[in-house]
Amino acid sequence: MEIIGILSALLMFIFAPTLSKISPIVDHTAGITAIRSLCFSLLIIPILSALRGYFQGLNYSFPFGVSQLLEQLVRVVCILVGTYLIRVQFNGSILSAVILSTFASSIGGIVAFLYLLFIGKKRNLFQLKDFYFLPLKSISHMKGLAIDIIKESLPFVYVGSAISILQLIDQFSLKVLYSLFFPQSSLSELQTLYTLASANPNKLAPVLLGIIGSITISALPLISTVKSKPELLQGTSQILRLAFTFLLPTSIGMIILCNPLNTLFFGFNLDGSRYLSATIISTSLLGIFTIVLSILQALSFIRKLCKSLQ
């Protein structure tokens, strides 16, 4: 897993100029620096995901969910406190604040990783026999099993990255579409629009995604172990009820407080508050969609859910 992270970090570092060029920003040099500041996060995410998968395999869903919420909360706090210190207390540059904001994801990942290590050590989950490496001769006979595991995991990767893929499509298509329909607009106006409509709201929306992820991960073991249709209907109903119980109050509260939230994090801007409200609504809808997809995954409806994303 960590090899994948290293390769991803190298690719992002190399292709940072290309990504900056197609993004809706004015200063491409600053964009390259900001993109490359994410490389460290790519080194942490794979090992964190592997550790979360280990907890999931042991049916410890609660630490898994807490680690996701903890990661997002720490990230948001780092963005808020770090930006305030850099811009207000030390009169630093906007680029420094942006770099810290992107690096905050690394800090959140480290905190979540340390939390899982603490829980695992406390519950004595890390046994040497669970991490024993088989001889190469034994591994060669497991080639078929490895291929089956990869085939089964690809739909999970596809579904799990759906929201991120949609955000990337927005980021890379905005510049082309905006220039096509509004050719008289400047690149500075485009950057302001992207910041208000996408970049800023997406710093707060992951808090909702953390709640969604916690519910989603509990859906798989609950549904996959049922043995009768009544149990299936009851389990599905409980998961959806749990999702709406947490998601609706949180979403409604953030929508009501979108103006104070936007002002607190990014300064007063009425358009920014409206975009934040729209982002919260769309994130909530995508979250429900993600939970339904997870239920379909647990029921082995892989082809149907992949078609629904196309």
TrEMBL record:
TM ranges: 30-51, 96-119, 204-223, 244-268, 280-302
Localization annotation: Cell membrane
GO cellular component term of the entry, any: plasma membrane
GO BP, sorted A to Z: cell division
Main subcellular location: membrane
Membrane topology of the entry: Multi-pass membrane protein
Cited InterPro entries: Poly_Biosynth_Transport (IPR050833), Polysacc_synth (IPR002797)
UniProt keyword terms in alphabetical order: Cell cycle, Cell division, Cell membrane, Membrane, Transmembrane, Transmembrane helix
Pfam families with a match to the protein in the record: Polysacc_synt (PF01943)
Entry protein name: Probable cell division protein ytgP
Species per Swiss-Prot/TrEMBL record: Enterococcus faecalis (Streptococcus faecalis)
